[in-house]
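User: Hi! I'm a student and our assignment asks us to look at how structure tokens line up with a sequence. Could you show me two examples?

Assistant: Happy to help. In each example below, the sequence comes first and the structure tokens follow. Example one:
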Amino acid sequence: MKKKSIGTISRRGFIKLAGITCGYAVLGLNVAKEATAATLNFVGIRQASVYNADKNLYNLRKSQDNPMIQKLYSAKDGFLKEGPCSHKSEMLLHTHYADRSARLTALKEKGIELSL
């Protein structure tokens, strides 16, 4: 296998470059600009439609507006009536970090390779 220097180009690269050059020569730079503008316009329209669909489909955009969450924290009959930052809600709803890096380091020192 030959080493390539910085100034050389592969056959595949040459064919790509020749195709692009011929495309610009045949279609002209103006057509390429129009195609780029049309593509960017399409992307903008698509992005706006995704945002509008998200806004219209999901009327509960904030978790505190969800009726189930409000019932969960209600003062009368809610399961977590003490409030969002109470000890009970902290124990049930929040995760806790456990450092397991020492065990991972010990496995690596034994020569076990892990694919994570």
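Example two works the same way, sequence first and then tokens:
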Amino acid sequence: MSNLDNLTSKILEDSNKRVKSILDKAENEKKSIIDSKVKTAKDEAENILKKSQIEAKSKAERVISNTYLKVRNEKLRAKQEIVDSVFDKAVESLNKMSKDKYLKFVKDVIGSLDIDGDEELIVSKEDAKKIDDKFLNELNNELANKGKKSQLKLSQEKRDLNGGFILYKNGIEINNSYDALVFSLRDELEQEIVSALFS
């Protein structure tokens, strides 16, 4: 019987050792799996954190960039309003010319143009009051002295001009209104004005 007890004891001992070995192996695998999952989770958390930091930085840079653009655009808009105001005041100033200066302006401009001399002079209702037959005769005499026709006449048509005049013939208009003249000079003068005002 003792052999049987020994054998049983041996089998139990071996079984216990195997169970312990299996349990140790399972515990090690469990630990390894948990460590691996924890490492993966930490790596993912770190990647998510880095990605969110990059996105936050990128978003902040976009917000700052957009703010700079808005500020720049506001400055440009303000400068443009000031420049527009300068040109509007130039037209206003031209409009305040005395009758004599206005008539000299009309005479000088017409004298400098290559026209036939039989055009119609279109002006505003206000400026029409400044032009009389004597002035038209003087203009026509000057045109005749230059070998041109001397048939320039004041048109019955009155335009809503902001000063100046338009010469009209056969559907063609030469616009010498103050607005058109100031606008034609704007490109070359605008940079000078900006430099003078904002430097």
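Here is something you could point out in your write-up. Residues 121 and 181 are 16 Å apart (CA to CA).
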